[in-house]
Amino acid sequence: MNAPGENLRIDGARLWDSIMEMAKIGPGVAGGNNRQTLTDADGEGRRLFKAWCDAAGLETGVDAMGTMFARREGADPEALPVYVGSHLDTQPTGGKYDGVLGVLGGLEVIRSLNDLGIRTRHPIVVTNWTNEEGTRFAPAMLASGVFAGVHELDWAYGREDAKGLKFGDELARIGWKGAEEVGARRMHAFFELHIEQGPILEAEGVDIGVVTHGQGLWWLQVTLTGKESHTGSTPMAMRRNAGLGMARVTELVHAIAMENQPDAVGAIGHVDVYPNSRNVIPGRVVFTVDIRSPDRAKLDGMKARLEAEAPAIAAGLGLGIEIEVAGHFDPVTFDPGCVAAVRAAAERLGYSHRDIVSGAGHDACWINRVAPTSMVMCPCVDGLSHNEAEEISPEWAEKGANVLFHAVVETAGIVA
Ligand code: HGY
Ligand code: MN
Ligand code: MN
Question: How far apart are CA 174 and CA 25, in angstroms?
């Protein structure tokens, strides 16, 4: 494989301008973004990305999950394309860079190839995966999961948001329900550039994370059923307080994660309390437990403990309990060849780098099942993400995109 020229660099200012332009769509309330999947804002962001792809001379296809694929031809049209990309949907308190850096970093690689007049042997395809976040429609990485054969299309279409709206209906409503069969595309390789969303790279003063693994995850949706009653006149001994049950399960989740340090995490981020009235004891609480570890045995052990001990908490408070899996993927080992391409790119460019395990889930975690895959990470300020104050420096973005550029071009092969 011929390594790209030493002098190949992306245009960092153009990348940064594009990120700032995308950030204007679906603004949050504190400087970040709220561009949740399949909202009108998501539709607007897709149209902007499509316009940029058109301007770069790319042919854009859309599959039945709404995932966008913008293709730059290669010298050998029969060669499987090298895919690059991430997601444009955000959390409700999202930052400007989570996912966006990977999609627009991929577009910048193509813009730079166009500027330099470089032809690659393999075609290159920039991808915007639908619903990576899983915040409006669980689970996370839904479209890449269907693409990898983990979820059925009809099951995905039936996923409902908090208002009971269905994924398939919302996808059609915003006009991005494509005709392409999901997963029909074959990939030579897939690379994803992403912010670390954790504190390691910045704390160590390292510019590039060479992602070798991703930790696994369980999302367990728990429903506790008690009895609504008056917060003033109901004697304590007569209460069936679902809110108290949730508090104790929250403590249990934290305790289990702390007992599995240093490489386990656990929290509850989604909670629906019914009837959520100041003077009514909660009769029903629905919440999602998020537990993760890079160690599969630990991860499954944490799940087993929760499934054993949460019912005991419920029984002690006279509550009914249901536990259902709302999301799951095993720890991921990325392709050694693609990981080596990322590491060689960082070394060739003279950037500080270190191997790292991804704490967050990414579309790459599912695509790794169907194509050789790896990720490039850049630092983020204070390791903060899923917060509107998420921040990176233009230099970090540029260096990450340069590593992506070299890894992708080396894998795609330069013809002329
Ligand atoms: O949940 C995750 O790890 C990803 O940010 N969707
Ligand atoms: Mn992300
Ligand atoms: Mn995210």
Answer: 15
Q: Is the CB of 168 under 6 A from ligand 1?
A: no
Closest ligand, as measured to the CA of 194 = 2
Does 3 score more than 60 pLDDT?
no
Residue nearest to atom 4 of ligand 1 (CA): 361
Question: In which residue are the tokens 């990414």 written?
Answer: 362
C-beta 327 within 6 A of ligand 1: no
Q: What is the pLDDT of residues 375-412, one digit of tens each?
A: 999 999 999 999 999 999 999 999 999 999 999 999 99
Distance (Å) from CA 350 to ligand 1 centroid: 30
Ligand 1 midpoint to CA 229 (Å): 37
For the record, the structure tokens of 335 come out as: 């392709």
165 pLDDT higher than 50: yes
Output DSSP code: residue 31.
Answer: S
Pairwise CA distance, residues 352 & 346, whole Å: 7
Answer for the pair 87, 153: CB distance below 8 angstroms, yes or no. Answer: no
**What are the DSSP calls for 345-389, one per residue?**
HHHHHT--EEEEEESS--HHHHHTTTS-EEEEEE--GGG--SSTT
Rounded to an integer, what distance in angstroms lies between the CA atom of residue 297 and that of residue 302? 9
Banded model confidence at residue 4, pLDDT cuts 50, 70, 90: low
> Would you say the CB of residue 360 lies under 6 angstroms from ligand 1?
yes
Report the residue among 36, 88, 141 best suited for mutation to probe ligand 1: largest number of ligand atoms under 8 A from its CB: 141
Ranges of H-type helices in 81-221: 100-116, 142-147, 153-157, 167-173, 200-204
- pTM above the 0.90 mark? yes
Could you tell me where the DSSP H helices lie in 161-237? 167-173, 200-204
Say if CB 340 and CB 357 are below 8 A apart: no
Q: What is the DSSP letter of 237?
A: G
Q: Which of 337, 408, 412 is nearest to 372 (CA)?
A: 337
- Grouping H, G, I as helix, E, B as strand and the rest as coil, residue 402 is helix
- Pairing mode of beta strands 320-329, 373-378: unpaired
End-to-end CA distance of the chain: 14
